[in-house]
Design brief:
Layout (H helix, E strand, L loop, with lengths): L8 H20 L2 H9 L4 H7 L3 H32 L3 H22 L11 H23 L3 H6 L1 H6 L1 H32 L15 H12 L17
């Protein structure tokens, strides 16, 4: 029988606040790997292979540093917060130090130059939501089993394996993303079909497509009204 006697209103409020802080820290730490996933064309395999780069290794080292700070917070929590947090003192210390250190790491990472900046798109927001599902389910189960402190501590496991949760989130989101992309494609085709006299030029090949696209646009714009896909987004959309 599940014992939920600990889940009184005051305890529940504190547990939810501590859990929210821990998940916020974990979400902040998702960003470099979401950026890597995005840079690899939202390909889980490509992202996991890219983890061997120096920058990705540095990001993993930062993840471990935040985990270490969380463990220190778990040890210091009872000393600092036991007077009002009781059995949640250790998780409170863990969450507080994790969140502070995750924000510090994010600030340091933001100053690092990138070939392509991270685009916080709706697709990225959906990936963040998907990536939160496994930890939320496990934390909720542990809490219902009467282990709220262990539930919060389990976030350390997810932080250590962040790249793999991002890859898993991409796999879980794949059917939905395919449906959304198909919807965009249908909308784009309807738009193109609605313009009378429109000539569509497609450029194919392994290399040089973007350069050829801009060269053609520059030449043809001398005589016609032209438009091309922006940057290197070489798709029918």
């Amino acid at each position: 029988m599940i014992d939920v006697g600990w889940f009184l209103p005051a305890d529940a409020g504190l547990w939810l606040a501590v859990t929210f802080a821990a998940l916020c820290a974990a979400s902040i730490l998702l960003e470099p790997f979401l950026h890597l996933y995005q840079a690899e064309g939202y390909c889980a395999g490509g992202m996991l292979r890219a983890l061997q780069t120096r920058a990705a290794m540095q990001d993993m080292a930062w993840q471990m540093a935040v985990v270490a700070m969380g463990m220190v917070g778990w040890w210091l929590g009872p000393v600092a917060f036991s007077s009002f947090a009781g059995p949640m003192a250790a998780p409170l210390g863990l969450s507080a130090l994790m969140l502070a250190s995750a924000m510090a790491v994010a600030t340091i990472r933001s100053s690092r130059p990138h070939k392509k900046p991270f685009a916080r798109t709706l697709r990225v927001c959906r990936l963040v939501a998907w990536a939160q599902i496994p930890p939320l389910v496990i934390m909720a189960l542990l809490a219902l089993l009467g282990k709220p402190a262990v539930a919060v501590a389990s976030v350390l496991f997810f932080v250590i394996w962040t790249p793999f949760w991002v890859a898993l989130a991409g796999i879980m989101a794949w059917p939905l993303e395919r449906a959304i992309q198909a919807g965009y494609a249908r909308k784009a085709k309807r738009k193109l079909a609605s313009i009378p006299g429109l000539t569509v030029i497609g450029v194919t090949g392994s290399y040089g497509k973007t350069s050829a696209k801009f060269i053609l646009q520059s030449i043809l714009s001398q005589e016609f009204r032209t438009v091309s896909t922006p940057h290197s987004y070489n798709t029918p959309m």
